[in-house]
Specification:
With 399 residues, the protein is mainly alpha-helical. It has one domain (3-180, 212-392): Up-down Bundle (Growth Hormone, Chain: A). It is 78% helix and 0% strand. The chain is globular.
């Protein structure tokens, strides 16, 4: 692996780890800082998630536009430096408002995923894009494994320890990039920064001018909303459906993340070569649908792990969609496109946790019409069905 590609891989890993590291210790940290019980801590935790997601939604196209104007290298390095400072703020926070400031800034720095994807698009040929986006998906999977594992292990040293570790990792990666990362954006592909385009709504307006892309962005949004059912309710679902404790929840998430790494890091290339991007996307979405329906029938832990080798194949859907969309826009709009997709991902992280937790609460509360912890997965299945119907009607624009 070339050093610049390794840097991009590690950057996406750190973005992903930022979520995973927090998951095991955030309830303890909120209770400690806010002096509240677990029930109220969950409410504060939801508010922190929304603040983080809203900023990621708002700033993704801004950062993507800045990278199109000034290059990928300075945007990535500055964001990593700010990310390291943000983790230190979270580690030293003595009030809930400092946690909010930390999550506010964290949402901005997490928007660098769009710039990392644009860098990968810059250095990839049309034939390589989907495969290299799969590598980014594998990086997300690595972070999804390491984050909960590292957070759980370091939690033994206190609720602040994971944040110190994350700060050191972000700063070290920034130094690594400073010495080895060349600029990938050619001067003739740069364009002037425009505030009308560098916001989520302006970006979507611009995307409407590109034939055939808006339906794909809607498919991407629906699939993202469905996927984010996992971080939204998995810990709660595991306890209610299987009787898991926190360690088992973390282990299940790590196992799922490991499967994503295998699929997107190794198997997606032969799958794409054999079936092409469109069929691969349909296959991945179909596995998503099958998985969500399967969760409604599971009652034992072994059933989840037995089905896991099948469910992780859903991870081929997003890289295939990314490849199709990336090949539909010009070289000077890759940052904008990736910014739009990152904004859609952030929008999904706003919508999905709110909706899914409400549905879970309604069907698990005392007096519920039926006890159904898996109800959010049925909603996710419906979202995937709509996405599949839209995608089946989409026709690839002429090159």
């Amino acid at each position: 692996m070339r050093l610049p590609v390794l840097f991009i891989f590690v950057t996406v890993v750190l973005d992903s780890m930022g979520i995973g590291i927090i998951m095991p210790v955030m309830p303890d940290l909120i209770q400690e800082v806010g002096n509240v019980d677990l029930s109220k801590a969950a409410i504060w935790g939801g508010a922190l998630t929304v603040v983080y997601a809203i900023n990621q939604f708002l700033f993704s196209p801004i950062i993507g536009g800045l990278s199109d104007a000034h290059g990928r290298r300075p945007v990535l390095l500055i964001a990593l430096f700010v990310m390291a400072l943000d983790y230190l703020v979270m580690a030293l926070a003595s009030s809930l408002w400092l946690l909010f400031i930390g999550r506010f800034v964290g949402g901005i720095t997490a928007a660098t995923h769009s710039t990392a994807a644009a860098y990968m698009a810059d250095i990839s040929t049309s034939e390589e894009k989907a495969k290299n986006f799969g590598l980014l998906g594998a990086a997300f999977g690595v972070g999804f494994i390491l984050g909960p594992m590292l957070g759980g292990l370091l939690a033994e040293y206190g609720s602040r320890a994971p944040f110190y570790a994350a700060a050191v990792l972000a700063f070290t990666n920034m130094l690594f990039g400073y010495f080895i990362l060349p600029e990938s954006l050619k001067n003739n592909n740069r364009r002037k920064f425009d505030w009308r385009r560098a916001n989520p709504f302006g970006t979507f307006k611009q995307m409407k001018k590109l034939p055939g892309l808006m339906p794909m962005l809607i498919v991407f949004l629906l699939l993202s909303i469905a996927f984010f059912v996992y971080p939204s309710i998995w810990a709660f679902f595991g306890r209610a459906q299987f009787g898991w404790d926190a360690r088992m929840v973390g282990f299940s998430l790590a196992a799922y993340g490991f499967g994503i790494v295998i699929i997107q890091g190794a198997l997606i290339r032969p799958v794409l070569k054999r079936f092409g991007e469109k069929i691969t996307a349909i296959f991945g979405m179909s596995i998503h649908l099958l998985s969500f329906l399967a969760y409604t029938q599971m009652t034992e832990t072994w059933q989840f792990f037995a089905f896991l080798p099948i469910s992780v194949f859903s991870a081929v859907a997003v890289p295939a969609l990314q490849g199709l969309m990336s090949n539909s826009v010009g070289e000077n709009a890759q940052g904008e496109l990736q910014g739009a997709m990152s904004s859609l991902t952030a929008l999904a992280t706003i919508i999905s946790p709110f909706v899914m937790t409400q549905v879970f609460s309604y069907f698990t509360r005392e007096g519920a019409p039926v006890f159904l912890p898996s109800a959010p997965f049925l909603l996710s299945a419906l979202s995937v069905i709509v996405a599949l119907l839209l995608f089946s009607r989409w026709k690839s624009p002429e090159p």
